[in-house]
Amino acid sequence: MGFVRSVGGAALVFLAATGRIALFAAVAVSHCVRPPIYGRLILRQMISIGYYSLPVVGLTALFTGMVLALQSYTGFARFQAEGAVATVVVISITRELGPVLAALMVAGRVGAAMAAEIGTMRVTEQIDALSTLSTNPYKYLVAPRLIAGFTMLPCLVLVADIIGVFGGFLVGVTVLDFNPGAYIQRTWQYLEAVDVISGLVKAAVFGFVIALMGCYHGYASKGGAQGVGAATTNAVVSSSIMILVFNYFLTGLFFSR
Amino acid sequence: MADAPKIALDDVHKRFGEKRVLNGVSFEVTRGESLVIIGGSGTGKSVTLKCVLGLMNPEAGSIRIDGEETVGLGTRDRARVMTKFGMLFQGSALFDSLPVWENVAFGLIQGQGMARKAAKDLAVAKLANVGLGADVAELFPAELSGGMQKRVSLARAIATEPEIIFFDEPTTGLDPIMADVINDLIVKCVKDLGATALSITHDMASARKIADRVAMIYDGRIIWHGPVAEIDRSGNPYVDQFIHGRAEGPIRMQVKRL
Ligand SMILES: Nc1ncnc2c1ncn2[C@@H]1O[C@H](COP(=O)(O)OP(=O)(O)O)[C@@H](O)[C@H]1O
Ligand SMILES: [Mg+2]
After folding, report:
1. Which residue's CA is the closest to the ligand 1 atom numbered 17?
2. What is the pLDDT of residues B57-83, one digit of tens each?
3. Edge-to-edge strand order for the sheet containing B68-69?
4. In chain B, what is the greatest distance between 2 CA atoms, to the nearest angstrom?
5. Ligand 1, pocket residues at CB < 6 Å
6. From the CA of B41, which ligand is nearest?
7. Neighbours of ion ligand 2 (CB under 5 A)
8. Chain B, 5-44: which have a CB under 8 Å from a chain A CB?
């Protein structure tokens, strides 16, 4: 009985949290599409999410592409299929590794910062102050971050795709002695539009999830500095898990047969 | 509803889990009056203000502003009522990502849609009203002392010229001289605007200075109220103990026995 009770209790807690997040998301999205829209704030968030994440996302993509070329080469050499390296690199990067790794890096960088900033505003009553100044906190704080996350992650992933494939190319032609022209030709040969597009759609979903989790946990934080710290951790952990889970289901959606 | 009280609370209840904080709070503030609610720490003074502002929802009771019931108001109507209010928060609650002038002009720019340039000029004027120079306008809140932050917060609260202003412990954490400066500013600003003021404090010097009427909250209820002049002859042992700051008396501090 004790076991059943604790499983049931955990399930209830999970369902309650899911409900609260869904409600938060519904209210926030309704504010994204209704005027007034704060263009200045959206732009600022876009710069903070998109532009300032470029170095970390670029580096991640570069080394992932490089290691992918190295690994697939040694793996495929066992059955004389080294020629597939370029294809494997470009498909792995565009479909999976580009969106997932970029999203995980951004979750750590941006999701945490959002939770900390909004959480601090909550515990120092700045969010209450917004309301008393006739400004809806959802519209002013949450909506710009959701819009920026949703739009900037695909841009970041597009850059990550290019840099990742370039990383594979670099290793391919320098370490593995591929002919550059042949490598590039192999890269294009089997690439389909759906590979890239599915990755970008994933990125948009992940960007939304990162911003949503950062805002939700910040918004719901209570107590003092400790509460803000917990909010930061929860934002990163929950968005990382949701990225991985959603990745599975989105992949199923795109490539099931 | 010309003669409806500006603010009227009737039997307001609020609890957090098992903990009952407000247990039937009732009081009225008439137009242009300044009511100060006194009471110990943790007696629900801030919660009372937040219920009136709609930042918290009471479980039961009625809160009327200009005769209009505001408990359970929808988002749009709440936003409309909110434009009547200005609030000075206990911890100032300045937006630390914005410079001082933008803090003061916030309600004008975001709430009323005023152009930034015009709002900045107005903000500088409001800062002058609370004794701060134009040089402060470009600083960030973190660069200011506690007393200056309170002044900026006061300037922000009055910038939109609200009909009703709330002051949550305006002098807490300030030295006695700065506290008196803030008290004077509050009296002056409220009078200039002709606003209705509702303040909460546990600082008796402050209460005597800014109040027309005083109400004392204890155990989730208003246990006494009357004109500030009568506070020394209230005949209420709770009020007597509080205004003289005695440890002995009917009020027991909730300190856990070891
Ligand atoms: N958001 C909240 N959640 C739970 N308890 C709260 C909350 N806000 C206030 N309280 C509790 O309500 C009581 C009254 O708080 P408050 O109104 O801030 O006191 P004060 O009279 O010092 O302003 C305190 O005991 C506090 O713990
Ligand atoms: Mg308080």
Report:
1. B44
2. 999 999 999 888 988 888 888 888 888
3. B19-29, B7-16, B60-65, B68-69
4. 60
5. B 16, 21, 39, 41-47
6. 1
7. B 46
8. none
Query: By the CB < 8 Å criterion, does A223 face chain B?
Result: no
Instruction: Say if residue B256's pLDDT is above 80.
Output: no
Distance, CA of A71 to CA of B70 (rounded, Å)? 66
Verify whether the Cβ–Cβ distance B87 to A129 is below 8 Å: yes
* Angstrom distance (rounded) from CA B52 to CA B71: 8
- CA-nearest of A47, A165, A59, A48 to A102 is A59
| C-beta atoms surrounding B8 within 10 Å | 18
How far apart (Å, rounded) are the C-alpha atoms in residues A233 and A191? 38
pLDDT digits (tens, 9 = 90+) for A52-93: 999 999 999 999 999 999 998 888 888 887 778 888 899 999
Q: Report which of residues A205 and B114 the model is more confident about.
A: A205
Q: How confident is the model over B203-255, as pLDDT tens digits?
A: 888 999 999 999 999 888 999 998 988 888 888 888 888 888 888 778 776 55
Tokens for A197?
């597009």
Query: CB-based contacts of A233: which residues, under 8 Å, 6+ apart?
Result: none
Binning chain B into helix, strand and coil, the percentages to the nearest 5 are: 40, 25, 35
Instruction: Give the model's confidence band at A239: pLDDT under 50 very low, under 70 low, under 90 confident, else very high.
Output: very high
The ipTM, to two decimals, is 0.87
Q: How far is CA B47 from the centre of its chain?
A: 11
pTM of the predicted structure, to 2 decimals: 0.88
Instruction: Assign a CATH topology to domain B1-75+196-253.
Output: Rossmann fold (3.40.50)
Nearest CA to ligand 1 atom 20: B42
Which bound ligand lies closest to the C-alpha atom of B172? 2
Q: Is B82 on the interface with A (CB under 8 A)?
A: yes
Residue B167 has pLDDT above 70, yes or no: yes
Q: Summarize pLDDT for B15-44 with one digit per residue, the tens.
A: 998 888 899 899 999 988 999 999 888 888
CA of B56 to the centre of ligand 1 (A): 11
CA B44 to ligand 1: nearest atom: 17
Contact B79 A136 (CB under 8 A): yes
pLDDT at A219: 93
**Distance separating the N- and C-terminal Cα atoms of chain B:** 55
Distance from the CA of B49 to the center of ligand 2, in angstroms?
Answer: 9
| Pair of tokens at residue A189 | 């040969």
Inter-chain contact B55–A134, Cβ cutoff 8 Å? no
